C-alpha cells in the first residue's frame, strides 16, 4: 500500500503543527502552512521539485511578512495606567482652598487628597475644578 506524496506533506504539516501548540512558536505554524501548500501542489500533480519550492516559498513568505507584523502588534499592547499614574491628568474638585501657603484639599477619584498648586502664585477656591498634573507623595499637584 503506497501512500501518495500529498498525504506525506499533510503528515508533515501536522507534525509541524504539534510543536506550534506545545511551544507556542508561530514559526512552526508558518512552516505547517507551507507543508499544506506543498500538499495541495502534490495533489494537483506537480513534481517534487515544484512541491519543495512551494513549501519553501510559502514558508519563507509567511515568516518574512507575518512574523514582523505579529512582533509589531505584540510590542504595541496598550498600557493600562494604574495607581498614581491613573490619577494624573484627571480632574478634581477643590473642597478646601488650595494655595501655596498651606496647600488645601481636593476630591479626586472619590477620595480627599491634600493638594498644592503647580504655580505658587495660583490659588483655587472651594468648588472649583482643577486638573491633576502630578502626585507628589500623598499630595496632588494641581493647576
Automatic annotation (TrEMBL):
**Annotated keywords:** Membrane, Transmembrane, Transmembrane helix
Q: Which residues cross the membrane?
A: 6-22, 52-70
Q: Which InterPro entries match?
A: Membrane_assoc_protease, NA-bd_OB-fold, NfeD-like_C
**Superkingdom of origin organism:** Bacteria
Question: Which parts of the sequence belong to the NfeD-like C-terminal domain?
Answer: 85-142
Give start-end ranges for the coiled-coil region(s). none
What is the name of the protein in this document? NfeD-like C-terminal domain-containing protein
Q: Which Pfam families match?
A: NfeD
Amino acid at each position: 500500500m503506497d501512500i501518495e506524496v500529498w498525504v506525506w506533506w499533510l503528515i508533515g504539516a501536522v507534525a509541524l503543527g504539534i510543536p506550534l501548540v506545545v511551544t507556542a512558536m508561530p514559526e512552526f505554524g508558518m512552516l505547517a502552512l507551507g507543508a499544506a501548500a506543498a500538499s495541495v501542489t502534490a495533489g494537483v500533480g506537480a513534481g517534487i521539485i515544484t512541491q519543495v519550492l512551494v513549501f519553501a516559498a510559502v514558508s519563507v513568505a509567511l515568516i518574512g511578512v507575518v512574523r514582523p507584523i505579529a512582533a509589531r502588534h505584540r510590542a504595541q499592547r496598550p498600557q493600562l495606567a494604574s495607581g498614581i499614574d491613573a490619577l494624573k491628568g484627571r480632574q478634581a474638585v477643590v473642597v478646601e482652598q488650595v494655595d501655596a501657603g498651606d496647600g488645601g484639599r481636593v476630591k479626586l477619584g472619590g477620595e480627599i487628597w491634600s493638594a498644592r498648586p503647580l504655580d505658587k502664585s495660583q490659588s483655587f477656591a472651594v468648588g472649583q475644578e482643577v486638573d491633576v498634573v502630578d502626585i507628589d507623595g500623598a499630595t496632588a499637584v494641581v493647576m
